[in-house]
Each structure stands twice: as structure tokens, then as C-alpha cells.
Amino acid sequence: MSKNFDVVVIGGGPGGYIAAIRAAQLGFNTACIDEWKNEKGGPAPGGTCTNVGCIPSKALLQSSEHFEHAGHAFADHGIGLKELSIDVKKMLARKDTVVKQNNDGILYLFKKNKVSFFHGRGSFVKAIDGGSGGYEVAVAGAGPETVVGRQVIVATGSSARPLPGAPFDEDKILSNDGALRIGAVPKKLGLIGSGVIGLEMGSVWRRLGAEVTVLEALPTFLGAVDEQIAKEAHKAFVKQGLKIELGVKVGEIKEDKKGVTVAYTDAKGGAQSLAVDKLIVSIGRVPNTTGLNAEAVGLKLDERGAIVVDGECRTSLPGVWAVGDVVRGPMLAHKAEEEGVAVAERIAGQHGHVNFNTIPWVIYTSPEIAWVGETEQQLKARGAAYKAGTFPFMANGRARALGDTTGMVKFLADAKTDEILGVHIVGPMASELISEAVVAMEFKASAEDIARICHAHPSLSEATKEAALAVDKRTLNL
Ligand code: FAD
Ligand code: NAI
Q1: What is the mean pLDDT of residues 197-212?
Q2: How far apart are CA 133 and CA 16, in angstroms?
Q3: Which residue, judged by its Cα, is nearest atom 43 of ligand 1?
Q4: Which CATH number among 3.40.1190.10, 3.40.50.2300, 3.30.390.30, 2.40.50.100 corresponds to the domain 358-471?
Q5: N or C: which end of the chain has fewer CB within 10 A?
Q6: Of 3.50.50.60, 2.60.130.10, 3.30.300.20, 3.90.226.10, which CATH number belongs to 3-159+286-354?
């Protein structure tokens, strides 16, 4: 006998679990199905983000940053350490505890909000009365079950894309999953792709002592980032010892007992080879739609396997919605969450809304990189009349006191109206500083609005105010 729900959510990552909670808050009898297993085979909701993404990567970034500070920055503060060591096992165990706290937190939230949780793989069985009666979804868990949802939200996320001919074995050729579980600091670590994962994971293991080489296909570094900011970040990463080769063409990848050898052609067309102990492949992610049995109900997928949705996350089927990494748009946890909330509200007849122009991006390297809105190159490409203002952390008192003066804040504003069009930051705590810019852009603020707001002294946020002042060429501290 199947169990009937108003809303069935397939996938318990940030898109799915947040959609389920919001749907339950709105009074719907809601179920969430998620198949992720912890090491004991038990449920581990939270998806990629919680288990092998945002949360564990930030835990390791924190540990490795402490290690780097202890080894390099402490001496400037007069703090002496006789011997410095890293217990990788302990560091990984701490990361696992952080992950578990988040898994448990989600299970608690399901209980609190009366969301019925099903542990197992959900797949479509059939549409009832052409979808007007809802959809039957089978759950292949401990005991097979069937649920019926009057409305179904698909939030099945994404998985790492392997290189052709080099499948992930999570021992030597690693996806994000294996990259977060390397048991000892490799002497030589290779990364394919200098995108977000490449830079974050490369930073973790470099800080701990690995010799890290990143091979990137594109000739430009961080093409989606404002060029001036990307250039500054590139300079900092190279100074730290990250080897980044741009414009390469990766060829054959061979594994042997010792490690992995990557044959590649460099930007000048020369044949090269890179021998490493471990290789992380971070060349983007693919939507998870296999196993969903989309064909059974005729759910439309695109050529990448992503679920086709409109601007409001409606799929090709009435009453079926899709959110997060499994649909178009940036693969970010907060984008998935916002879509999940908006869909639950739409189901309730409300006007859920996601502003795709104000979704912030953060790369949690050191220096951090964060931005919202358009880059200077995008403004140029669309022929926009704009003004730019920058302010370096070098001239910020708090950054000097922190001993972290790399980078800058950059504002881009409309030349006529002064409306903020983009804010780009490379430097300390960029991940936190960007929120002010997001709020400002949501309220359609001008650069002058930020320039006139009182910011605490001494704080990094004063660099934001000064960059806004710089748009009008009237910085006070530079
Ligand atoms: P997912 O989190 O992938 O969740 C989907 C869930 O559905 C999974 O639990 C999966 O097992 C389950 N599932 C799939 N198919 C089925 C099925 N048929 N039945 C039942 N369950 C199913 N984003 C950020 O915003 N900030 C970051 O700092 C950040 N760091 C990242 C670091 C790494 C290393 C990686 C890999 C990603 C990172 N991301 C980050 C991206 C972020 O993790 C994703 O954008 C986010 O997890 C997408 O959420 P989602 O709910 O769409 O999918
Ligand atoms: P990515 O899209 O960020 O970067 C992939 C890089 O690999 C690109 O620079 C691309 O040009 C390069 N590439 C592709 N094919 C290649 C090839 N054959 N050889 C060499 N280089 C190649 O993807 P990544 O790093 O795998 O991360 C996936 C997604 O996960 C990100 O786009 C982001 O959405 C999300 N993420 C977000 C984080 C955050 O918000 N801080 C952290 C980590 C991941």
C-alpha cells in the first residue's frame, strides 16, 4: 500500500531538504526521499553539500589554514612553536564529526517540521490520471515502499564528471569525494581543472605540504571572475607555491603502483607529462538523473541529462518541479535552497521568487574570492556605461592588524544612475563581506548609498565603503 503525501521531494541535499521543510511549514503533508548512506549504511541527508562538498571542504580548509598560519604567520606575532606536525587522521576525523553534526541536524529538522523521511533511492513509477492525481514514486530502501505525491519536487543534485578513459577509483584518481579523504599528505598532487574545487582542494593539500600542480584547459585563469580580481588571485596563489598551467590539453592518464602519470600538451604545443601520487579531477559536474526513471513519466531532460525547467522550476510535467544542481544555473548550495523555498511557496499559491542576478559566489581559498553581479568584462561586452572603484586591503587598518593585506574590493556602478552593477572582492573574509553587496543590490542601492553608511572601525568592511567612495574618486584613506 502506498503512502500519500501532498508533496514528495526526491533528494535531501540543500535544494531538497530545504524545499521539504518549507513545504511542511506551509502546511503540506511532506515526504523527503534521500539515498545517501553514512559509513554504517545509515541515512546521511544533506547531499553533496553536507557529505562531500561545501561542509567537509570548508572544515579541511580551516584545518589546513590553521596549519599554515602556525607554520608561517605565528612567528610575526612573536609566537614560537618548537615542532609543528599535522595528524591527517585526526583532521579527517574532525571533518567527519562536522559532517555528522550537519546530517543529524537535518534529521532533527525533519522531525521538528514533521517531514516524513525515507532512506533509499526514489524513482518514478507512473503518473496517476496523467499527473492530475499525482505521481507514484518507488523507494528502494531497506524495505521497498511506494509513495504518492500530489506534487513532486526533484532535487537529485549532481556528481563529479570523470575524464574519458580515467574513471574515479578514489584511490589514485579522485573525485571531490576521494579528495576529501586522502589519508596522508601526498608528496605530489595533480589537479585537472583550475575551477572552484581545483583551487579549494589544491589549497588544502598545498598548505599541508604537497607539491601541487593544476592543469587547466582554458587559456584564462578563472574566466568567470572579474579579470582584475582573477589576476590578483592568480598572483597570490602562484606566490604561495601553487603551480597553475593554463591552456593545456590533457591526454592519456596512466595509473601504476606508484601513482598516476598525465600526458598533456602545454599552451605552446609541447608534449609534457606530470607524474603525481594522487590526481584530483575537478572538471565540472553532471546532473544526477540516472536512477530516477524519468522515462516512466516522460520527464523531459536536456542533452546534458539535466531536467528541463522554466524560470520558476516547472518541469515538462504538471505537478513536477525540479531545483538545484539537477537543473540549469549555477551549481551552488544557496541557489538550490532558494529554488527549493520558492517552489514550495509556488505550490502553496504564493509568489516565490529567486533573483538570479544577486546570487553570490565565493571561492574559499586564501585569499578568498567573492562576487555578486556583473564583471567588468561583462559590462564591456554589453557596451554598458559604468564607473569602477577599487580599494586595496593594504590600506585598511584591520587587514594590517590581521596581517592579511592581499587583495581589494571593487565596485562597478552605472555611470548615470550610480546603481551598483557588481561587487568583486579578493582578500580576507571576502565570503562574509560580500553579503553587504548582495543586500545593497537587492535594494537597488547606489554606490553612494554604501559610501554614506557608517561602517565600524577598524573593520574589513571599511574597504567596502572605501571602494564605494572610489567610484566617485573620493577615497579617504588612500
Ligand atoms: P545535492 O547536494 O547533490 O543533493 C542531492 C541528493 O539527492 C543527494 O543526497 C543524493 O544522494 C540524492 N539523490 C540523488 N538521486 C536520488 C534518487 N533517485 N533518490 C533518492 N535520493 C537521490 N556550493 C556552495 O554554495 N558553497 C560551497 O562552498 C560549495 N562547496 C562545494 C565543494 C565541493 C567539493 C563540491 C563538490 C561542491 C560544492 N558546492 C558548494 C556545490 C554544492 O555542493 C551543490 O551546489 C549543492 O549540494 C546542490 O544541492 P542539491 O540539493 O541540488 O544537490
Ligand atoms: P568548475 O566548473 O568550477 O571548474 C572546472 C574547470 O575545469 C574549468 O576551469 C574548466 O575549464 C576546466 N576543465 C574542464 N575540462 C577540462 C579538461 N579536460 N582538462 C583541463 N581542464 C578542464 O568545476 P569544479 O571545480 O569541478 O566544481 C564544480 C562545481 O561545484 C562548481 O562550478 C561550483 O558550482 C561547485 N562548487 C562550488 C564551490 C563554492 O561555492 N565555493 C566549491 C566547490 C565546488
Answers
A1: 97
A2: 22
A3: 49
A4: 3.30.390.30
A5: N
A6: 3.50.50.60
Alpha-carbon radius of gyration of the chain: 24
Gap between the Cα atoms of 121 and 241, Å rounded: 43
Region(s) of the chain under CATH 3.50.50.60: 3-159+286-354, 173-283
Mean pLDDT of all residues in 242-250: 98
Are the beta carbons of 274 and 264 closer than 8 angstroms?
Answer: yes
Spatial contact of 268 and 439, defined as CB atoms under 8 Å apart = no
Q: Is the pLDDT of residue 222 over 80?
A: yes
Q: Which ligand is nearest to the CA of 55?
A: 1
Q: Which of 57, 173, 196 to mutate to test the pocket of ligand 2 (most atoms within 8 A of CB)?
A: 196
Ligand 1, atom nearest to 292 Cα: 18
Residues 309, 287 contacting (CB under 8 angstroms)? no
**Residue length, the chain?**
478
- Decide whether any atom of ligand 2 lies within 6 Å of the 292 Cβ: no
**Smallest Cα–Cα separation from 225: which of 88, 60, 424, 81?**
424
Give distance in angstroms: CA of 331 to centre of ligand 2. Answer: 10
Domain 173-283 class in CATH: alpha beta
Q: pTM of the full predicted structure? A: 0.97
Identify which of 273, 69, 282 has the alpha carbon closest to the alpha carbon of residue 163.
282
316 grid coordinates: 515538462
* C-beta of 109 in contact with ligand 2 (< 6 A): no
Cell of 253: 592518464
CATH 3.30.390.30 residue ranges of the chain are 358-471
**CA 200/CA 266 separation, integer angstroms:** 23
pLDDT per residue as tens digits for the range 63-122? 999 999 999 999 999 999 999 999 999 999 999 999 999 999 999 999 999 999 999 999
